[in-house]
Design brief:
The complex is a heterodimer of chains A (181) and B (171).
Chain A lengths: L13 E3 L2 E3 L2 H10 L4 E5 L2 H10 L22 E5 L7 H10 L5 E5 H6 L20 E3 L6 H17 L8 H9 L4
Parallel strand pairs in A: 3-4, 4-5, 5-6
Antiparallel strand pairs in A: 1-2
Helix pairs in contact in A: 1-5, 2-5
Chain B lengths: L4 H12 L3 E6 L5 E5 L4 H10 L7 E9 L9 E9 L4 E9 L5 E3 L8 H12 L2 E3 L42
Parallel strand pairs in B: 2-5, 6-7
Antiparallel strand pairs in B: 1-2, 3-4, 4-5
The chains are: A alpha/beta (181), B alpha/beta (171).
Chain lengths: 181, 171
């Protein structure tokens, strides 16, 4: 029977009458990936593209992220969209630190990724100078399709991420390199 | 009866003699002149309060750095003023020495000068004597340099993606 409503594919597992067995990490990954709550941090034109992404034409809600969280404590992914000045850097870092694990970061657009055209004394040359970044979306500004593509790529990371990655030696080392406790 | 440039010049010269000099017109036709840095407060008070001149509005204050000028005039503070009644604008510069650029704050005359002077201090390190709260306004407080001075590079030293190898500029 042809399915009219698209649903998320079940992970690999063993299926039989009345039961389905798979790894817990796969189920957790599936749940996490398909309900990522974004914390939008829009400081310039990339933020406008994000507004279009949330709008009905592109509709980020189709991928389980319609619930924007304006409190970092309830958000899963931090979306940094726009130029971050050095004066502003402590704010963004504080927001990152307030987010609960697991958390992911997306740098949307050239400015958040590398400073963009603002190669100047007052602008942070990419947010990865202060916090770890999972996904970079290029563009100046990127189209909503690109932002969606970035979120889909992030979902793949989230799905495959071991539930115990947080707390591993490697992850601690990463956070330590950013001097985040 | 509009306020003529000649009238402004005569009025200022009778009052301040050699402290005001070099009257000229810039390319946009605005009357421009230089004022001795120590006299800035008196000149602005006169421009504001004189019944004939009536420059009631301070449009802007900004700084300039001239690294190639003689030591005594490496910095300039530029004042723009506007007479709303006759719709006349003027501009004048106060030159400051490069080692110790200091000038009187005009906050007692125009409260709006507060942030403009802070901005000028922030970017050029020009000290406004008597300013109620002279600290950085736009740049982060930890910044140790005055970034619009020409000796500091415009670009950020932490930039990593402008590698010459990627642009065929390898030496």
């Amino acid at each position: 029977m042809e399915q009219k409503i698209k649903t998320v594919q079940a992970p690999d597992g063993i299926e039989g009458p009345g039961f389905f067995a798979t790894k817990l990490s796969e189920v957790v990954g599936l749940a996490r990936a398909n309900s990522l709550w974004p914390m939008p941090f829009a400081t310039s034109c990339c933020g406008i593209e994000f507004m279009a992404t949330m709008g009905s034409t592109y509709d980020l809600g189709r991928f389980g992220s319609e619930r924007l969280s304006y409190s970092p404590r309830q958000a899963d992914m931090l979306m940094v969209m726009g130029t971050i000045s050095k004066k502003f850097a402590p704010v963004i870092r504080r927001i990152y630190e307030q987010m609960a694990e697991p958390k992911w970061v997306m740098a949307v657009g050239a400015c958040a990724s590398s400073g963009g055209i603002f190669d100047t004394y007052s602008v942070l040359q990419g947010i990865d100078k202060i916090i770890p970044v999972d996904i970079y979306v290029p563009g100046c500004p990127p189209r909503p399709e690109q932002i969606l593509d970035g979120i889909l790529k992030l979902q793949e990371i989230v799905k495959k991420e071991d539930i115990r990655r947080r707390g591993t030696e490697e992850y601690d080392k990463l956070l330590k390199s950013y001097n985040i406790k | 009866m509009a306020l003529e440039a000649e009238q402004i010049k005569n009025r200022l010269e009778t009052e301040f003699e050699t402290s005001v000099s070099n009257f000229r017109f810039e390319r946009d036709g605005m009357l421009t002149f230089d004022v001795e840095a120590t006299k800035n407060l008196e000149v602005i008070r006169f421009l504001k309060e004189d019944a004939e001149l009536r420059f009631n509005f301070l449009t802007d204050i900004c700084g300039v750095h001239y690294p190639d000028f003689p030591e005594g005039e490496r910095f300039a503070v530029v004042y723009h003023m506007h007479n709303w009644m006759d719709n006349v604008r003027i501009l004048f510069k106060c030159f400051l020495n490069g080692k110790n650029p200091e000038i009187n704050s005009i906050v007692p005359l125009f409260v709006g000068a507060n942030w403009q002077e802070r901005e000028t201090y922030d970017f050029y390190g020009i000290i406004f004597k008597g300013h109620p709260q002279l600290k950085r306004i736009l740049n982060m407080e930890e910044m140790t340099v005055f970034p619009m001075r020409k000796e500091y590079p415009m670009e950020d030293v932490g930039r990593t993606d402008k590698d010459d190898r990627f642009f065929g500029r390898i030496k």
